[in-house]
Design brief:
- It is a single chain.
- By secondary structure, the protein is mainly alpha-helical.
- The protein has 9 helices and no strands.
- The radius of gyration is 22 Å and the shape is elongated.
Length: about 250
Amino acid sequence: MSAFLSVCGKFLVGVLVIFGIWALLVVLFEPPSFMLPGPLEVLQSFPANAPFLLHHAGITALETVIGFVLGVSCGTVLAVWIWLYPLAGRVVMPTILVTQALPVFAIAPVLVLWLGFGMSSKIVMAILVIFFAVTSTVYDGLRRLDSGLVDLARLYRVPRFRELCVFRLPAALPAFVSGIRVAAVFAPIGAVVGEWAGAKGGLAFIMLQANARGNADLLFSAVILLALMVLALRYAVEHLSRLLVPWQVED
């Protein structure tokens, strides 16, 4: 509970600092409201648009969570498979690298064309954005086993699958935690990019509509909700990380 209150306190301080700088910029430069509305104007727009904003925020949140869970699962399974079958990994890894080299904005319209304007294309987009980071970190964790444990496994002729379960997977947990921390930040980006390419709902859908109509208050409200969503997912992953690797000391 004290850790949660500490996080909330730091979050509130950060929000106050950001809003203070924002308000100062508005006072100093006096930009038109359609370019940069004041923080009070944006906050006042929340009650009027709350049902609309929360409905579309729920769509983006669902896409993000499903994409995060599936992306982490696919990345972990792929990393384990590559370690178990190194020859197959040499064939698969170059293909994965090619997909990661393509800009996400180039892939998103293709996914929308294939999967439609619904949630499927956004979930797949989130998976594509994060699963390589999880795959690479978990695979590195599986490979970086203490040499003493490796010698012990070889001495007792431990089968490869049992070596994976007994030695490799526990040793790879810190790397897995690093991977999901990265995924927690990039999963919402994948979902939003997919919505930008074409969607029937979501926060990016609101942003596009608000930008086309010059409704900066609604646009900034959607951006703030997206930022809160990313922070909430990141906090949840941090809490999960402490449960998975309680022995890992953090500065």
